[in-house]
Prior knowledge:
The chain is an alpha+beta fold. The protein has helices spanning 3-10, 68-71, 77-108, 122-133, 136-143, 146-166, 168-180, 182-199, 272-280, and strands at residues 14-20, 23-28, 32-36, 43-44, 52-58, 61-67, 204-209, 215-221, 226-229, 235-237, 253-257, 267-270. The chain is 44% helix and 22% strand. Helix 3 packs antiparallel against helix 8, helix 6 (146-166) runs antiparallel to helix 7 and helix 6 runs antiparallel to helix 8 (182-199). It is elongated and about 80 Å long.
Amino acid sequence: MTAATAHKTERSNRILTFLLGHTRFAIDISSILSITDDFNKVESSKNHQLSFLGYLYYRNKPVNTYECSTLLGRDSNRTILESTISSLNDGEEAHVSWLNGLEQSITNGTRFDLQRDPRVCEFGHWLQHKQKTADDTTKTLLSRFEEPHVEFHRQADTLLQVAKDSGTAEALKQLAAAKRGKVSELLRLFNYTKSQLQSAVHPVVLYITRDGVTPWFALVLDSMDDIVSYEESQFTQMRDPDDLSAEAHPDPVYGYIHNPDTDEKDSLILSASRLAYLIEH
């Protein structure tokens, strides 16, 4: 393939955009053979390339498949969401265990030694940190935990005092009522939040091509943003998409799109040839 042909292949004035963290990347549509949801079909394997996930089959032929975020040295939004869901699972399990511990303490008249301060408990500490570092959508979801989480931990002081003043039976009666009301609100919130985050995890596979017919390699994206057209005046080329000979450490980005009519960040356009260089080196 000549340099002229390669340059033309990289530019069709239509791009597929996607986000990694707060950065918007793009790949020219002419470099994409197919867009699928084949991620769950990846046959896992490993090699020297950290971004290598394994193989997918395109028309029965194996295609090397790579994690785009790892290839670009970026955090994966999908991995971050999956980690958040895992932490919510741990938090839910810990609070169910805490509740069982409280009930046993009331029933047996034993000392309750589990954490009563919602800000100090492991989940509460994680929640405070996560609300400072998460994306806006996750922050909004997690902000809903504050009041029910405080109310949940408040049950320990309240019910242990009831047990002391009015007896075990009355405390257990009020605990049963709390399980149907204030306590269940937190547990329902765990399930709701995990469901909302899980719905945002939908990785996309791009089969990249250099001849428009056969797959070159496949990239896994956290998700796809959009497919858009752009005017020639909105495109700025920073370097040749295919000629890497003068660069000691070639950058996979060869240009960017700036749309003055929106307040969105510019889209950094990735070169298929430059991505292939990263894979090979």
